[in-house]
Amino acid sequence: MLKILIGLAAAAAIVLGCYFGAEAYFQHRIVGEIEANFAQIRAGGGQAKRGDLAFSLWHRTVTISDVAVEFTAPRPASIKIGRFSAKGLGLQGGADFTADTIDMTNVDASGPLAVPDGVTASFKLPTLQISDFRGPTQLQSQLKSSSSLDMYRFALEQLATIKARSVKASSLVNTTSGNVADANSETEYSDVVLHDIRNGQIASISTGRLRMTVTVTQKGKTERMTVEFANFEMQDFDATATAAILDPARANDAQFYRVQGPAKAGPSTIQTDRGPLFRIEAMKVGEIKIQPSKFKIQDILAFKPSPVAAPDVNKIRGMIDSVASLYEGMQIADTEITGLSLDVPQNGLKLAAMRFNLDRGKIGTFALEGLDGKSPDGPVQIGRFALKGFDVSGLMRQLSQLVTSTKSASPEAALGLLSALEGIEIRHMVAPHKKSGKLINIENATLNWGQFVGPVPSNTRFSLKMTGPIDSKDGEPFTVLRDVGIDYATVTADLGQTWSESERKLILDPVTFEIDGLFAVTAKASVGNVNRGLFTTNSQQALLMATQMEIGPIEIVVRDLGAVDLAVAQYARRQQIDKDTARRVILERIMKLDAAVPIANPTTDALTNAAMNFLEKPLRTLTLKIAPRAKLPVMQLMQLMKTDPSVAFALFQIDVQISP
User: What domain of life does the UniProt record list for this protein's source (predicted)?
Assistant: First the structure.
């Protein structure tokens, strides 16, 4: 029995010895890894220290207190941690370590920001918890550059070396200060969560609430703006791709890198001390891709205008070009902001949605939908206002040339701004008509242009459908409606013009104009021998080119929608006769006018007969097909119309048809 007890005691002693020996070994190793990192920081000119360290092999926990690290190069920065605790600790072959959970309290970090350069920022986290962590035991490299962008890139590269199931912070406070505008900001985050960190990617980043307060002091006056966001969430942030974009070695890389997936937030508010409250119900941002060769953020940060010296025009132009290039190097998928409102006493403004996307510096469609506001004369509503094909980068470059030029803007330069936009669209717009208390309703209005020849578009199209009150100054044909008690008129128009360089032809199609209840006109026309030189801002050159143009075939279709009967009824009232008599009197006058022509002309006779037939039976369609008998220069026809219209008519073959 004694031998057994002695054997058990010896075994227990061996186990305890191994346990405490292993605990001492692992504690020594952990201390060694920490000191190795500290030594690396000190070698770079920084400082690093810690308080007590406790390790338990049985619970696989390590606790370190009062960690303080200060960097002096490349930029002053510091990190302080009141208490660091890792549970479920494991060392993986000496290169990595794992932990079931890592808890940090009283985390305080400060250092420079990159945008704008020269601004310092501090971050305070009362608590930070990391779950299922795996990462290197030592820093993978030493930062040597003094650029703030390189500091960001360095941090992103370190992120690519770790894995974690989640990172959570109940609250985070970020403050910034030190820029030239004497502005400071404080941002409070709550319920910050990062999910699934691995291979330099974060599956999702979310925060329950963000509140940012910006304070600006200028000329002794202080203005404060407060911004609040709730329920922010971003998907698929790629730290590796972001680091690649900031790498100077990729300055010629034309590939687009996806830096994040969709993001959303809302509701949100923006308010200043003296201004109205601006609200946003929700925001959704599509995935973002960036091209390193165009994303020249370092050139923008390097621009620092002198507060004393006169502005350097070349530097300003270069900065604007860098910003334009930055937009060209971005792709932002479909983005929408919904439920916007501006609380202004007696003149509030609401907007149902704002939608846009960005592809290589160009916004495909920028749309405002559901605008509801007030003007001094009454309510204003717009169902949709859209800019199509908005070239942001191109417009910036053109404006930079105009703004920084010492010469006055030329017509070519001013007209060239049109090339930055492809069209404008308005739908379902309601606005007050002067101070009459009546409303103008624009159901649809679009204007598109393109196929530029120099600064001048050679293709245009305008469409309009609107209803509005008839004013006493509108004149004919609206007088006809007003006289019979109709207060509103609906007008529809569709005008298109296309130039074919290969055929040297200018085509007017469609050409339609309609006044509801009166008439509708459609037409097709073409002009031949139209050379490229016509599309210019040089009036002399345009006039010279115009002399070479030739009239082509023309087709005009007129549909009576009630104009004939209204005109006859109006004439009858004025003459105090019945409608049948009025119609007969009008026909007789047309016949007398035709008889007054000294020379018989088959063309004018055909037109007279058609007009009489059109008046006799209303609600019919009149079709005119007009074709020149030989080549007919436009300028020659215009001159003949002034001097001898009958000769001008004789130059055309006219076919007249009337159908039910």
Answer: Bacteria
Of 150, 153, 116, nearest to 303 by C-alpha is: 116
Question: Could you give the C-alpha distances from 320 to 222, 297, 304, 487, in angstroms and in order?
Answer: 30, 12, 13, 52
Contact 216, 223 (CB under 8 A): yes
List, run by run, the mean pLDDT of 10-residue segments along the chain (660 residues). 34 34 48 66 73 80 88 76 89 74 91 64 91 80 58 77 92 79 82 93 95 83 89 94 87 93 94 86 96 83 63 80 91 96 80 96 95 86 95 89 70 80 95 82 95 91 93 72 78 95 94 92 95 89 91 94 87 88 86 65 73 84 92 91 84 88
Distance separating alpha carbons of residues 526 and 386, to the nearest angstrom:
31
User: Domain for residue 644, yes or no?
Assistant: yes
For position 33, what pLDDT does the model report?
65
428 phi, psi to nearest 5 deg: 50, 55
Alpha carbon separation from 421 to 104, 204, 390 (Å, rounded): 53, 36, 5
For the chain, how many structural domains are there in total? 2
- The DSSP line for 89-146 is -EEETTTEEEEEEEEEEEEEEEEE-TTTTT-EEEEEEEEEEEEEEEEESS-S------
The verdict on 389 and 533 lying in the same domain is no
Distance CA 522, CA 494 (A): 9
Exposure string for 604-620, b = 16+ CB within 10 A, e = fewer: beebbebbeebbeebeb
**Torsion angle in degrees (nearest 10) through CA of 183, 403, 303, 243:** 90
- pLDDT given for residue 178 in this prediction: 67
Any domain includes 296: no
Please check whether residue 468 is in contact with residue 441, taking contact to mean a CB–CB distance below 8 angstroms: yes
Q: What is residue 100's predicted lDDT score, i.e. its pLDDT?
A: 93
Q: What is the pLDDT of residue 115?
A: 52
> Do 474 and 426 share a structural domain?
no
**What is the three-class DSSP state of 644?**
coil
Please give the pLDDT value at position 305. 60
Domain membership of residue 374 as a residue range: 309-332+343-432
> Residue 241 region, left (φ>0) first, then alpha (ψ -120 to 50), else beta?
alpha
3-state SS, residue 254: coil
pTM over 0.70: yes
The pLDDT assigned to 15 comes to 35
600 and 462 within one domain: yes
- In the prediction, which pLDDT does 140 show? 55
273 in a structural domain: no
Instruction: Classify 19 as helix, strand or coil.
Output: helix
Report the 10 Å Cβ neighbour count for 92.
12
One domain for residues 478 and 597: yes
Residue 650's pLDDT is: 83
407 and 497 in a single domain? The answer is no
Secondary structure element (H or E) that encloses residue 620, with its range: none
**Phi–psi pair at 322, nearest 5 degrees:** -65, -40
Q: Are residues 636 and 523 in the same domain?
A: yes
DSSP string for 177-242: E--TT-EEEEEEEEEEEEEEEETTEEEEEEEEEEEEEEEEEETTEEEEEEEEEEEEEEEEEEHHHH
The per-residue pLDDT for 598 is 55
What are the tokens at 257? 């890198």
* Range 144-148, long-range pairs (CB < 8 A, 24+ positions): 144/44, 144/74, 145/74, 146/73, 146/74, 146/75, 147/74, 147/114, 147/298, 148/75, 148/112, 148/113, 148/114, 148/117, 148/301
| Peptide bond preceding 660 in cis form (omega within 30 of 0) | no
